[in-house]
Write a structure and sequence with these properties.
alpha+beta; Glutaredoxin; 2 domains; three-stranded antiparallel β-sheet; 7 strands; 38% helix
Length: 200
């Protein structure tokens, strides 16, 4: 074999061909664009997650019961608890309904863990939460709804209440959290259990 003969095989450990300057710049540009897009998505995701309102926040900003009974507006009274998963689930929808009807109706939140509201709990026979009582502008209870009520149903009731019309879903009921109260005590009730209740 001639030692000066040319071979067509490339050497095994030959270095890679250097990338062009344009190709390197394009790759870096794409990396920056992807990083910016991911950052924006992360920030928007965190903002959306953080904007979800809790039932405790609604309770802090609600109309006091004595004001609601004396200001000449109809009222929606919600009996709730911070530990109530159904109450928490409904909080964003209730916040939107409250925002829509804030000028026309009172939204009152009464925490069942506060003994101060025991007379009201007995009066309205609250044994599951969330428990909603619809009051006329004179403070007369005209309907109740208990449990996980769809937003459209609740909004229809509130709309009828503020226009002084019959409530279309006056006896709505859904999934609730049980409350242990003197209204209907049983030894087996766990305050965090869920069930359904029909109001008559």
């Amino acid at each position: 074999m001639n030692k000066f003969a040319m071979t067509t095989e490339a050497p095994v450990n030959s270095p890679a061909k250097p990338e062009s300057t344009f190709g390197a710049r394009l790759r870096n540009f794409l990396i920056v664009i992807v990083a910016i897009a991911l950052s924006v998505a992360l920030v928007l995701g965190l903002r959306t997650e953080g904007s979800s309102i809790s039932v405790a926040e609604l309770g802090k900003t609600s109309t006091p019961l004595d004001v609601a009974l004396s200001n000449g507006k109809p009222s929606i009274v919600e009996f709730y608890a911070d530990w109530c998963t159904v109450c928490q689930k409904m909080a964003p929808d209730m916040a939107k309904i409250e925002q829509q009807y804030a000028e026309k109706a009172n939204f009152v939140m009464l925490n069942v863990d506060n003994n101060k509201w025991l007379p009201e709990m007995l009066k309205y026979r609250v044994d599951g939460i969330p428990h909603f009582v619809f009051l006329t502008k004179d403070g007369k209870a005209i309907a109740q709804a208990i449990g996980d009520i769809p937003r459209t149903v609740m909004a229809s009731n509130v709309d009828a209440l503020v226009t002084d019309s019959p409530l279309p879903y006056a006896q709505a009921s859904g999934k609730t959290s049980k409350v242990s109260t003197p209204v209907a005590p049983t030894a087996q009730d766990d305050p965090r259990s869920h069930g359904s209740q029909v109001v008559k």
